[in-house]
Amino acid sequence: MTLLIFFALGVTAGFFVKREFKIEKILNVTLVVLVFAMGVRAGQVEVRSWKLLIVPIALMLAATSTSVLMGLVVVKFFGRR
Amino acid sequence: MVFALILVIALVAGIITGRHIDLDISLLADVMLYTMLFFIGMEMAQKREELVRDFTEVGVLAILLPIATIMGSMAGGAIAGLLLPGITFGTGMTIASGCGWYSLTGPYLAKFNPEYGLIGFLANFMREITMLIFYPLLFKWLDPIAAVTIGGATTMDSTLPLVRKFAGRKAGIVAFAHGFVISLIVPLLLMLETGVFF
Fold first, then answer.
1. pLDDT digits (tens, 9 = 90+) for B6-24
2. In 3-state terms, what secondary structure has residue A49?
3. Which of B84, B89, B134, B140 is least enclosed by beta carbons within 10 angstroms?
C-alpha cells in the first residue's frame, strides 16, 4: 500500500511540477542501491540448493515463451488492420 | 549494456557484503524503492500528452498486447511453479507477473521472503537480457510486434531503442505503449498476488 501511495504522490506531483528532473539519473542511482541492498539480503540467506540459479532461468523461459505465444495470437487477430 | 553490467556488479558486491558483514539495509532499500516509484509516477504525469498521442496511434494493440504479455507471463510462471521444486503455483505466478520489472519485483518480494526476492530479481532481470539478445534475432521470424512481448515492462524504457532500431517506428510506439500499460498494472498485480499467495 505504501508503494501505491508513493506512486500516486509522484503522479500528483507530475501534474503540478513543470520542471523536469533528471529522472533517469535519479532512477539509475536508486536502482544500483536497491540492487546492492537486494544482494546484501540475498547474501544473508543461507543458500541451500541450486534452485536460486535454475529456478529464475526456468521461470523466465516459461513466462517469456507463453507471453510470446499470446502476443502472436493477439497480433494475428488484431494487428493487421 | 554498461548499466546492466553495473547492476550485476552491485548485486555481486551486495551478496559478498551480506555474506561477510551483518548489515541491516532494509530501511535504505525501502527509501530507495519509494523514491523510485515517486519519480516514475511523476515522469508519467509530466509526459501525459505524449503518452495519449502515442496510445491513440496504435489503437487496440496498445491494450491487448500488454494484457497478452501479462496473462502469458502469469500462465508460464504458474506452470513453472507447479513443475519446479521449492516454489509453488502461486509464488511462480507472482514472480513471473513482474514481467521484466526486476527493480520493483525483486525488492518488493524481498519484503516477504528474501529468497523469493532474489529469484524475482534474477528471473525478471534475465528477461531484459533475453530481450536485448534475442529480439534482434527473432523479430523477423516471429513478428516484430509480437516479439515485443519478450521484453515485458522494459519495452517502455531500456529496450525501447532496440525495438525502434530494428523494427521501426510503429513497433516502437507499440513497445512504448506495451511497457507503459504493463508498468501501470504490475504494481497492482504484485500487491494482489502477494496478498493471496504469500
1. 878 887 898 899 888 887 8
2. coil
3. B140
